[in-house]
Known about the structure:
By secondary structure, the chain is mainly α.
Amino acid sequence: MSKREYPCTYLCNINLITLLDTQTVQQCLERLPESLIKSDCTLIQAIPHYIKQDSNLVSVIKRIVLKSPFLWRNGIEKKGMTIGYSFIDITGISNQIDFTATEMEVLWEKMKVSLYQIKEVCNNQREEESTFFINHFATLLDEMKSFIESNTFKAISPKEYDEIYNEIISLRVSVASNVCHSIYDLLIRDETSDAISMLVDIKPEIRFPKYQGEYILLANKLVLMKSQHLNSCMNHFSWIVNSYSEYIPQDIFKSLLEFILIAYEPYFNGKQNWNLPFAKKEDFESGLIKIYSVFKKWGGINVFWQSYKPRFINH
């Protein structure tokens, strides 16, 4: 091969893998100069998909990844920010290559450094500054979340794991809302689908201590039937209530569940035609049945829903 080969040339060759036998591909990849591999983020990510676990390239790739400037690269530099940067898809690589517990700890620690750099930039952002740069963190934070969810970290304590996981989620929520707006603000502006997509990522045990106000607002949207995302409200709220009732403060939410059940009773007892443009009756029937089951478990009584037989959904 020419001494002036570029990474893209090798990527083109890798794409021809279906025309070559496995051994030939392996031999070709093992002849690649290490300097060439580590110079290109895409090449680093591609090779693990085409090599065997016993290949000599495994140790090479691991060594490159652990020292690579592309690892958790966030674009933050001493003189400012770099846009258009690439970072390694470490989740994809870790699915193809087995890292040792020690190596996983290195990946973890380097991830923390990048994470706290992002946090500092977000915290120091001035209102008059453009959020354009900060929005670039979203994809990297998603990668961090995916990485720690799909791997095991034997050297990391459960307490530290939870702290870092929650930090990632918190920053992701901030970035997704352009840092200037909280989930509550999004709900107030009825950008409810965006708000719900953020709430889904919150760990169950911290949802109601930290986001109780947001769920009260969701419940009120359902009671008042005022949202262009009413169906999403019901689907998410009923799922949360049904799946994580042990985390929900009964003294606050029991009455809200009752109000929701009362509000929609006329639509299911024949007294009111279904005229809600942003709601599917079958989804609401399913959601209301879930809500009633928890309301009943909490000692609540509603004669209509107690005897209601589903007509729009299959069980």
